[in-house]
Specification:
Elements lengths: L1 H26 L1 E8 L3 H11 L6 E8 L1 H9 L6 E4 L2 H9 L7 E13 L17 E4 L4 H16 L3 H7 L1 E5 L2 H9 L5 E5 L11 E4 L8 E8 L6 H12 L1 H9 L9
Parallel strand pairs: 1-2, 1-3, 5-6, 5-7
Antiparallel strand pairs: 3-9, 4-7, 4-8, 4-9
Helix pairs in contact: 2-9, 3-4
């Protein structure tokens, strides 16, 4: 009799534990956040800071080029929040009625990343014959911003744009990949966001400024998806990014907060 009682208690206790675990799992909300790849590092930190403030919310980040994320969403990917590096891909989702009203969360600028051993000291050196350049594809926000920069320079220096394009050895589908081509020595230089250039550590790259006259200020927009099953959590996450804590994190990674633009 005693053995039967002990067995019953053990089984009952096990079921109780299982029930508690299932209940805890059911209470957790997985918030799917699609982010432009240039935001990967600050968003990881923002997600960690946000989760303790949200009851049972776990942020799941999906980082890629804005154009890739937009296509994934259009094809039915389950996203609660979308953060784009430009208006073009955000507008495409708004036009199809897939997203609510977006908010600008931060700004960025373009710069040249150059190998320290390359014969590149100033921005105009990109037109030197024989320089190997990596650029983002124009489908990528950074790629279109690069063309905008070159078009602006072209107004003052006719022929400059084509000379630079003649030096391009690769077009990448992510601005992070452009920086990696230079860091790995596969290109002498590339045009990326300021935030994509390593500021510390052992690396062979340096930053070369693009004059304000020719540069582009890009804006990052965040939006909650209309078909999100966790719309309250999605909106809370965007509000956290816009809070002082969220903006301080973005600034620490080189982004310009909305209050400083």
């Amino acid at each position: 009799m005693a053995k039967r009682l002990m067995l019953f208690l053990a089984v009952a206790f096990g079921i109780g534990l299982t029930g508690c675990t299932a209940s805890a799992d059911q209470q957790r909300t997985d918030l799917s956040v699609f982010i432009a790849s240039s935001l990967n590092q600050p968003m990881e930190e923002i997600a960690k800071a946000f989760e303790p403030t949200a009851n049972g919310v776990k942020v799941i980040l999906n980082a890629a080029g804005s154009q890739t994320l937009r296509m994934q969403i259009e094809q039915g990917a389950d996203a609660d929040v979308f953060i784009s590096a430009d208006e073009r891909h955000m507008d495409a989702l708004l036009y199809k009625g897939l997203a609510d009203t977006p908010s600008v969360i931060a700004y960025n600028r373009m710069a040249i990343i150059a190998d320290k051993s390359a014969d590149i000291k100033e921005w105009h050196d990109l037109a030197k014959k024989g320089i190997k350049i990596a650029l983002a594809h124009t489908d990528v926000p950074a790629g279109q911003y690069t063309i905008d920069v070159l078009d602006a320079i072209e107004q003052d220096q006719p022929g400059f744009k084509q000379m630079v394009l003649n030096n391009v050895v690769t077009y990448e589908m992510s601005v992070k990949d452009v920086a990696q081509k230079v860091l790995m020595g596969e290109a002498d230089a590339g045009i990326v966001y300021v935030t994509d250039i390593p500021l510390t550590g052992d690396h062979q790259a340096r930053l070369i400024d693009i004059p304000n006259k020719y540069n582009i200020t890009s804006q990052y927009l965040a939006v909650a998806m209309k078909d999100s099953k966790h719309s309250d959590a999605a909106k809370s996450f965007i509000e956290f990014i816009l809070s002082d804590d969220g903006q301080k994190i973005l600034k620490r990674y080189g982004f310009t907060p909305i209050s400083e633009n």
